[in-house]
Design goal:
Its cofactor is Zn(2+). It is an enzyme of class 3 (hydrolase). It is found in: Cytoplasm; Cell membrane. It is a peripheral membrane protein. It holds the Pfam family YbeY. The chain is an alpha/beta fold. The chain has three domains: 136 residues, 3-Layer(aba) Sandwich (Collagenase (Catalytic Domain)), CATH 3.40.390; 165 residues, P-loop containing nucleotide triphosphate hydrolases (Rossmann fold, 3-Layer(aba) Sandwich), CATH 3.40.50.300; 105 residues, K homology (KH) domain (GMP Synthetase, Chain A, domain 3, 2-Layer Sandwich). It is built from 14 helices and 14 strands. A six-stranded mixed sheet has the order 7-8-6-9-10-11, sandwiched between helices. Helix 1 packs parallel to helix 3. The longest helix is centred in the last third of the chain and has 18 residues. The chain starts with 13 loop residues before the first strand and ends with a helix. Bound molecules: guanosine-5'-triphosphate and magnesium ion (MG). Magnesium ion (MG) binds next to helix 5.
Length: 458
């Protein structure tokens, strides 16, 4: 270490290697250390560094202020500092790359801060490179999170809690069969529309996160695609994403629907949840749609799955039981800094949020194979002088006949989809939205790995 930071206990250390790279994370919980290590490795890879040892250390405000005073002559705590070490060949082990010091109470996003610090360490400088570093940073975060990300430098946010207060924060992965109500529950928790919802199974294709923050806790809910056996590259990626999210979560929330008996799909997921070996909570959703007897039976069926942890009867639709579930989830969170600014409700960037609102209307307006054959990409969002937005979007399908259905007689279908989506987009944006929507055939997009990469399904 270049800095004279106090040495954390061994329980706080996470050290891992990847090819010739070694990244050590100090001062973070096990789960957080794993995430930050992955972020650092992704940034090193993007910068073309393939060997060396790097340390990421989390410090409190007082320590950050001291480092700033000593090395930069500034009496302030900042979000991240990089201390490169050039050309020092260690006697044993990989060469030293340097240290990235991160101050969680000053960060809006810890992964972003680590990527930012590592890129600086690798010689990038956003103040002089005309956007090159921030573009690379956005690219790394996109790859890490499987969806488009912003490209701003880490910014300082004031947290609602003082630095002396202990906070709890962590990731809760929602695992359950398609259609049991995972996205509806995330929206209910976040108090806003984070994820689109439909009565068609496999609505959710990417991991989206909803954020709920209390005085001294923050729950990050990872809405996941309904777990399933893969059929093509798209569904294989969706399932791989779910497995990774379970492994990366602090708590797993297993969800079934009271309206259907527990089936092989639910048991398959219960197995994956058990394998993840995380603190687990189960919820029986949609109790508003069944009588008490059926709810009791569903609770019993879940009990027989023999998962660890408590079981909650809830209705994501009406909110019944959701507050009790939330309190219990918070009690299982590890102690740690907030992971998002307290005012955040989701991590979904505007392009993706708009694309999903359009896809939601496609799901509402079409049937059979069409909903699953459609993907939406927002290519551009323009702001007009009057403050309104112009959103350019492509609606892909796989065949000419699907295109004909989507356009409809006299263009009626695409108009109906567009105007319903536009209304939702205007609510989200808070300003009027003009939508330029084109229907295009893109054969086999569900198998096109390059394309799936580009649209963030990883
Ligand atoms: N009655 C009732 N319906 C619900 C409830 N929660 C969700 N639903 C409905 O169930 C359907 C599926 O909800 P989603 O939230 O999209 O389900 P999901 O688990 O995210 O589905 P995938 O994304 O396909 O995995 C929608 O029609 C919801 O309106 C509930 O508590 N009660
Ligand atoms: Mg969903």
């Amino acid at each position: 270490m270049t800095s004279a930071a106090s040495s954390p206990s061994s329980a706080d250390r996470d050290c891992g290697t990847d090819a010739g790279l070694e990244v050590e994370v100090l001062g973070a919980s096990e789960e957080l250390a794993r995430r930050l290590r992955r972020a650092a490795l992704a940034a090193l890879e993007a910068a073309g560094v393939s060997d060396g040892h790097l340390a990421v250390e989390l410090v409190d405000r007082a320590r950050m202020r001291e480092l700033n005073a000593r090395f930069r002559g500034r009496d302030a705590a900042t979000d991240v500092l990089s201390f490169p070490i050039d050309g020092v060949e260690a006697a044993t082990g990989p060469r030293e790359l340097g240290d990235v010091i991160v101050c969680p109470p000053e960060c809006s996003d810890l992964e972003e801060a680590v990527v930012h610090g590592v890129l600086h360490l690798c010689g990038y400088d956003h103040e002089r490179d005309q956007g090159q570093m921030l573009a690379l940073q956005a690219d790394v975060l996109t790859r890490l999170r499987g969806s488009a990300s912003g490209s701003a430098a880490p910014r300082t946010v004031a947290l609602a809690v003082g630095s002396g207060t202990k906070t709890r924060a962590g990731f809760v992965a929602l695992a359950g069969r398609p259609n049991v109500g995972k996205s509806t529950l995330v929206n209910r928790f976040a108090g806003t529309k984070v994820a689109i919802v439909s009565d068609k199974p496999q609505t959710t294709r990417r991991e989206l996160r909803g954020v709920v923050t209390g005085d001294d806790w923050q729950l990050v809910l990872c809405d996941l695609p309904g777990f399933q056996r893969p059929r093509d590259e798209l569904t294989a990626r969706m399932q791989a994403r779910v497995e990774r999210a379970l492994a990366d979560s602090d708590v797993v929330l297993y969800i079934v629907s009271a309206t259907e008996p527990i089936g092989p799909g639910d048991r398959f997921i219960a197995e994956a949840v058990r394998r993840a070996e995380k603190p687990t909570v189960a919820a029986v959703n949609k109790i508003d749609a069944v009588d008490r007897e059926r709810t009791a039976l569903a609770l019993l069926e879940v009990e027989k799955l023999d998962l660890p942890g408590e079981i909650f009867p809830i209705s994501a639709k009406t909110g019944e039981g959701v507050e009790e579930l939330r309190e219990h989830l918070v009690s299982l969170l590890p102690e740690g800094p907030f992971l998002y600014p307290p005012e955040s409700r989701s991590d979904v960037p505007p392009e993706l949020a708009f694309a999903e609102l359009i896809r939601e209307q496609v799901l509402r307006h079409t049937r059979e194979e069409v909903p699953h054959a459609v993907e939406v990409e927002v290519s551009e969002i323009e702001r007009r002088p009057d403050g309104s937005l112009v959103v350019h979007a492509d609606l892909w399908c796989e065949t000419e006949s699907q295109k004909a259905i989507l356009i409809g007689a006299g263009g009626r279908m695409v108009k109906a989809i567009g105007s319903a989506a536009r209304a939702e987009m205007a609510i989200l944006a808070g300003v009027p939205v003009h939508l330029d929507l084109r229907v295009r055939v893109r054969r086999g997009w569900r198998k096109d790995e390059g394309l799936l990469d580009r649209i963030g399904i990883r």
